[in-house]
Write a structure and sequence with these properties.
CATH class: Alpha Beta
Strand order of the largest sheet: 2-3-1-4
Distance between the termini: 42 Å
Number of domains: 1
Radius of gyration: 16 Å
Helix content: 40-55%
CATH topology: Alpha-Beta Plaits
CATH architecture: 2-Layer Sandwich
Number of strands: 4
Order of helices and strands: EHEEHHHEH
Strand content: 15-25%
CATH superfamily: Transposase IS200-like
Number of helices: 5
Amino acid sequence: MPIPAKYLAEFDEDRIYHVYNRTNNKEPLFLSDENRYFFLSKYHEYISPLAHTLCWCLLPNHFHLLIRIRTRSQIISSLLGTADRGQTMIEKRYLDNIITTGVFTEQRFKSFFQSYSLAFNKMYNRNGNLFYKPFKRVLVDRESQFTQAIVYIMPIPSNIG
């Protein structure tokens, strides 16, 4: 059955999205705190230059993010600020205005997932896809939807009485 279009929203500048993904077959996504830290470091490397993170939650077999895509000028500034490491082909295509912010953001998410998966598979002598494809992203374009997303994503601590 095809995934409804609302779960595959195209990323656009200065818009808010609920992004989430799960593992295949409900496998664990994190087997240690080290995995969680590595996931967040890869997220920072791949996604932070493109998006401001409003809130996030890492669960045993999936994650949720609420992000606002930065403007094109902010993204370009961020990419040019890391020029000393060299630019990837996808970054060059974005900087040359060959691909849109939406395509660039989607590709960066895919690269992020691939990077984490390769390291996870190597660490645990595992093969195959870790993440379910395609990852979901829902445009949050109403205040009520924004509030619902925050309430959904932010866990309530169990020690609050």
